[in-house]
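Data deposition worksheet. Section B asks for the primary sequence of the deposited chain exactly as it was used as input, without tags or linkers unless they were present during the calculation. Section C holds the resulting structure in token form. Section D is free text for depositor observations; keep each observation to a single sentence. Incomplete worksheets are returned to the depositor.
Section A, Depositor: J.P.
Section B:
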Amino acid sequence: MVQLSLIATVFGVERKIAMYEFSPGERPSPAVQETGKRHSRVRSCFTWIAALLLFAGGLGVGFMAAQWLSPGSLAAARNGGEGVDGLRNQFPIFWEAMELLYNDFYGEFPEPSESTYAAIRGVLNELDDPNTAFMSPEEANFFRENLQGSFEGIGARVDWDMTADTVVVVEPFENQPAWKAGIKRGDLITHVDGESILGTDLASAVEKIRGPKDTTVVLTVVRADSTAPFEVEVVRDRIEIPTIESRVVAGNLAYVRLNSFNENAGDLVRDAVEAALEEKPAGLIFDLRGNPGGLLRQAIDVAAVFLPKGQNVLIERFADGREEIYATEVEPVITDLPLVVLVNEGSASASEIVAGAIQDYRRGQLVGTVTYGKGSVQLPHTLSDDSILRVTVARWYTPDDRTIDGSGLQPDVLVELSEADREAQRDPQLEEAIRLLGGEAEALPVE
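Section C:
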């Protein structure tokens, strides 16, 4: 596993993965749940300020760049006909309240920018959509660094658990700092160096968890099978994110693993499959486990490696009823070599696009566990101070018009990979893929 994903990119736009499912029995403690609820209530108190502050500058909520709807007309359609002007008319109330607050409050005020960002996040919190999100300039820089393929941190993929209102560990990467320190999948992180992150947000929490190589961070962890929270010291390191891996398994089967859909993914997969064919394999295993997604264009290009030219890969639908269909545009590398695609709960967005198309066309079998279920599209806006606002603007569907949002793709062959398997260094999902392709059975280590 090689992808620490605070933020990924899908459809050429940024998106936050909001993984908050737990395995059976891995519910957060009541204390954590109640604390998270209290933070949520506090944030909601600022919603009216946030609504005014977000829209007063004319930000609005926009569609994709190709949809030439004006922000005013769109907002009007969704706000009883008043549109942004209705909010602007209320803005004097905001200044009235702020003047009283700044004149009378006994205590210190946050920096003006922090007040602005908190107000924006307040209204976003009311949307009940974890994928519509805001990043401060500092958080946006972390996002951009993540896209470069390397960063300094603990070496784990984390997401936001909506029930506990804090960070949950999706995957500690093998032999990386978090894994070495004993962090496990499903662990909730409630404090970083003694500072609570309950009720904050994923971006700001990850900013605290990350840090320079060779520095130590103390994480307070809540684990399902533990009676009380405990602290774990993790020494940060430089984390490199390779995009693709390939090799031969079981003697005569090609194995290609894609870790992210970055701007080179399509070419890398095409090159890897072409190189694999030179060995005349009996079948191919395409591993998308733990791949959180990436660029839409690259998802189409990757699908085109396996599907004939001109076949639909996905359907994109917008709130006004319009739709756009994306199809493969180049000749495939191979369309008849037996194929198995490995997926799990960490396979999201672009991974689900490719896997869904392969499944719909019966091009190959999906093996593993149910995928994440990220079927929405976000449009990013880089604001004047280099902060980023991402807005959900559409949903996408598989070629057979299936929606996977919130439900994920059901594998053709369900194979779990347990903690016991990991500890024993076994990969039953890969073993099943080999069996389906007629390869020689062998115990294979977890990737």
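Section D:
The longest strand covers residues 388-397.
The chain has 13 helices and 21 strands.
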